[in-house]
Amino acid sequence: MSDGKFTTQAAVLWGTIPVEAQKRILAAVFCVKCRDAVQIVNFTGDVDKRGDVVLKGSCAKCGYEVVRVVETSEDQPQNN
Ligand SMILES: [Zn+2]
After folding, report:
1. What tens digit of pLDDT does each residue of 26-69 get?
2. Which of 33, 40, 53, 70 lies 20 to 30 angstroms, CA to CA, from 19?
3. When comparing pLDDT for 4 and 5, which is higher?
4. What are the backbone dihedrals phi and psi of residue 65, each rounded to the nearest 5 degrees, phi first?
5. What's the predicted TM-score (pTM) here?
6. Ligand 1 centroid from CA 35, angstroms
7. Residue 55 phi/psi, 5° resolution?
8. 3-class SS at 10?
9. How far is the CA of 38 from the centre of ligand 1 (A)?
């Protein structure tokens, strides 16, 4: 994870997520302009009040701002 700026807390929480799950998350962020799940690029990571990681970045297709909340507290990698 060299791209993007994460807060220390966000980096720790994000690091607890399996890499495969991270890839799925980053590749399926909903863009309101594309009306589709897109790849998020140039993203930053922060932590909200609930302790979830909040990824903020741009849609890889159109560049519109996209946000993805990752509920690390309820992470269930096997739920597929
Ligand atoms: Zn888009």
Report:
1. 999 999 999 999 999 999 999 999 999 999 999 999 999 999 99
2. 33
3. 5
4. -70, 130
5. 0.83
6. 7
7. -95, 125
8. helix
9. 7
Residue with tokens 């970045």, as numbered in its chain? 57
User: What pLDDT is recorded for position 2?
Assistant: 46
Average pLDDT over residues 4-31: 94
Number of helices followed by number of strands (H, E) in the chain: 2, 6
Tokens at residue 52, please? 């979830």
Distance 28 CA to ligand 1 centre (A): 11
Alpha-helical segments (H) within the chain = 8-15, 19-27
Distance 26 CA to ligand 1 centre (A): 14
Do the Cβ atoms of 69 and 50 come closer than 8 Å? Answer: no
